[in-house]
Amino acid sequence: QMCIRDRVQATLHDSQDLDHYELFVLDAPTPIIAQALGGPGDRLLFLTYLCPDGKSGLDQCSGWEEYIDGTKYCISAGEPIVIERGCDTGSSGGPETGAGTVRVIVAANQFDGTCDPYELQVLATYQLELPRDF
């Protein structure tokens, strides 16, 4: 299957709650899209891509960029977030070894004091496995 869409059910419990996700995908020069749906909350989405060699592969970003612990993230408030990947794939050993890492952080932007359930959707082409907490 060329295109996989993953859905994860989760909840933000307070204004400081950060939900981290990581998934491994085959490296390809295709966009990655993430969005958090449902619930009453106003959320921030942080999205980045690491190339197979571990270096940042974040190219174009639909929001604004910030560094977190030395890693550049694309950040969006309340909108689906889209990044483009830019990796030097010439040094990898082909698609069978070229697995990159997608990292997503979901955080509360405005928290109204109740639990904020949401469904995280990540759309990436050439995906290898389902997201898991990291």
Q: Total strand count, please?
A: 10
Distance between the termini: 25 Å
Structural class: mainly beta
Number of helices: 0
- Proportion of residues in helical segments: under 10%
Radius of gyration, CA atoms, in whole angstroms: 15 Å
Q: Topology as H/E string?
A: EEEEEEEEEE
Mean pLDDT across residues: 81
Question: How is the main sheet built?
Answer: 5 strands, antiparallel
The general outline is: elongated
Note the beta-strand portion: over 45%
Strand adjacency order, main sheet: 1-10-3-8-5
Low-confidence sequence ranges:
92-96
Helix and strand topology:
Elements: E1 3-12, E2 18-26, E3 32-37, E4 42-50, E5 58-61, E6 64-68, E7 71-77, E8 81-85, E9 99-110, E10 116-125
Antiparallel strand pairs: 1-10, 2-9, 3-8, 3-10, 4-7, 4-9, 5-8, 6-7
Characterise the protein shown here:
- The protein has 134 residues and is mainly β.
- Helices cover 0% and strands 57% of the residues.
- It contains no helices and ten strands.
- It has strands spanning 3-12, 18-26, 32-37, 42-50, 58-61, 64-68, 71-77, 81-85, 99-110, 116-125.
- A five-stranded antiparallel β-sheet has the order 1-10-3-8-5, with no helix packed on it. The chain has a five-stranded antiparallel β-sheet with strand order 2-9-4-7-6, with no helix packed on it.
- Strand 6 (64-68) and strand 7 form a beta hairpin.
- It is elongated and about 45 Å long.
